[in-house]
Input
Amino acid sequence: MSDDPTAPGTLWQAQPAIDRAIGWVAISGGLLALGVAALVSISVLGRWLFSSPIEGDFEFVKMATALAVFCCLPYTQVQRGNIMVDSLTTRLPARGRALLDALWDLVYAGVAALMAHGLATGALEALNSRETTMQLQLLVWPAIFLCALLALLLVLSALISAARLIRSGT
Output
């Protein structure tokens, strides 16, 4: 196996495709958030004008908001858009800061893996118990399962951003 990170078949060559996929997932999350905003607006207008809101709107809002957030987390990670406090590390050399940031990215990947595991377990439990929403009786496991998959994408994103920091040193 070659030590060259740009050799064919390595993760480094797959990164542009992964970055594009992460971008499309984030766009999907943004569109989902816009859809939620439209749903809430229409429901409020229906309630105000006709005393007839959209039935179960809060159930859609709850699930869609969770999905939208999980869609955007991987993009935020690879773009280095998360909040960082660096007041104690500003005097470190660039390489030291990069390695410290990479360490925290690895910690974040571990936390995201725990979230993915918890979500996957919750999805299986909801599937087995046939859990549904209160009003519309929608199955909840698909939304939880999608959040678990998106948490796995967050794990991958955090690992990629850590690898980039380690590789570049800045």
